[in-house]
Amino acid sequence: MKKKKSKIRRIFVFLAIFIMNALGFVNAVYATSINTANLYTTGDCGALLKYKGGIVKVSYIQYSDNGGEYPAYCMDKTKPRSRNRKL
Fold first, then answer.
1. SS3 content of the chain, % helix, strand, coil (to 5)
2. With CB atoms counted within 10 Å of each terminal CB, which end of the chain scores lower, N or C?
3. DSSP annotation string for 69-84
4. How confident is the model over 4-52, as pLDDT tens digits?
């Protein structure tokens, strides 16, 4: 009886590990590096960002590629003009 419980427990542990690994691939984000793009603003984000009690004006920036519109992000804050970019 103990061997059967041990075997069932091992199967459950294996299945749990397999399921957790599979779920990691489902939620993966595929960012791409773009050297040049035509960026444009689609409007104000409202009171999305606050600093020291004041609202920081933030614009929603997009670019188009192959007929689709995608949000533009700068993931490297050490790059010049990556913060506080004015359009």
1. 30, 25, 45
2. N
3. EEE-----TTSTT-SS
4. 888 889 999 999 888 887 776 666 666 667 677 788 888 887 777 888 8
Q: Residue 19 — left, alpha, or beta (φ > 0 → left; ψ -120 to 50 → alpha)? A: alpha
Residues 62/38, Cβ–Cβ less than 8 Å: no
Buried b (16+ CB within 10 A) or exposed e, 21-36: eeeeeeeeeeeeeeee
How far is the C-alpha of 55 from the C-alpha of 51, rounded, in Å?
A: 6
Cα–Cα nearest to 55, from 45, 63, 41: 45
